[in-house]
């Protein structure tokens, strides 16, 4: 199961509808939480409790013995109760759950609450208390009106139709980008951030292994001069200087990203210049938030393109150890900003889907310093490497593009993860 987050482009009326559904979801959570606590207190009778934080109730004194006559609160029980409450509620009350609101919108929070309680009890049983300063109790707390807005719909509630998502009651909302998955949608979370709505679709795959190019092994070098270079060893990798590999893919940092990064700096300065508490400052903050959201989208998009491209190239791909990538100064800021862990996460699940093997090189594997043609290790001080894009091997005379050479060295066969065993020269 994989989540795909897609930005939405709702009309004003649709955005108001989303607000209403998110509010229903929040109210259902709060209603269920207080009802859960009430039933629990009813059941445990004489047990004394200590209030921790805003809502947490922690038992004190002797452990209680539950009243067997009263059932313990459950999601199913609360769901039934909510239906009754709704049937009998006088008109004008419980407005948050009046149709046209899909039933799932106020039923899912009840399930989520049950899940949250069991997670809480599991943690307590293990002796872990995960309360923080804002919630010392560590269990479920009421959702405030300022909390981020979201609601859940199941797979049956919606349909993806071209560039649109179809919701209950015939609402068709435009998607900002085409969905890039095959498979069945099982659930969806709609959420708002900085004034714009997105939907995260949970998709179940029919696992269909596409045939990756047999016998191709590639390495990925996250880049100093580019975003990423994927290279493979050629049969002709030889000391004649013809080069020691071929680039399968060279991905650059998207131009739009660099431009938007400059705009981000300007917008941040705008906020700093405005008077604290002023209307203009609020507006500037809104603009900055929207821009952050846009940048996040661009990043996600660039990473998806990159990782989708990579798994089509080879039967196995090698990557550097995470600590090596993030610890090296020469690795561009773009890699860190684009989200190295997100890159690895996407690469791993897409590789699993496509039947491509991922191998991680051992820590401190000197991918950049080995000549991929003759295998000689070059021991140059770190400063000498800075800013170098091309270099020539002093042993065999091969000319190298720095990133491509490193990528070729990272193909799994080169570092010993492949079928042929280690081929590394002694370092
Ligand atoms: Zn060489």
The computed structural class is: alpha+beta
Sheet with most strands = 7 strands, antiparallel
* Radius of gyration, CA atoms, in whole angstroms: 28 Å
- Cross-sheet strand order for the largest sheet: 4-8-9-1-7-6-5
Can you give the mean pLDDT? 81
Low-confidence stretches: 237-242, 418-427
Straight-line N-to-C gap? 43 Å
Q: What molecules are bound to this protein?
A: zinc ion
What's the quick description here?
The protein has a seven-stranded antiparallel β-sheet with strand order 4-8-9-1-7-6-5. A five-stranded mixed β-sheet has the order 12-11-10-13-14, sandwiched between helices. Strands 2-3 form a two-stranded antiparallel sheet.
Task: Lay out the secondary structure.
Layout: E1 2-9, H1 12-44, E2 48-52, E3 56-60, H2 75-88, H3 103-125, E4 150-154, E5 159-161, E6 164-167, E7 171-175, E8 184-193, E9 196-204, E10 217-222, E11 228-232, E12 246-251, H4 255-273, H5 279-311, E13 316-319, H6 322-327, H7 333-338, H8 340-354, E14 357-360, H9 382-385, E15 390-392, E16 399-401, H10 402-409
Parallel strand pairs: 10-13, 13-14
Antiparallel strand pairs: 1-7, 1-9, 2-3, 4-8, 5-6, 6-7, 8-9, 10-11, 11-12, 15-16
Helix pairs in contact: 1-3, 2-3, 4-5, 5-8
The site of zinc ion has 8 residues, from loops.
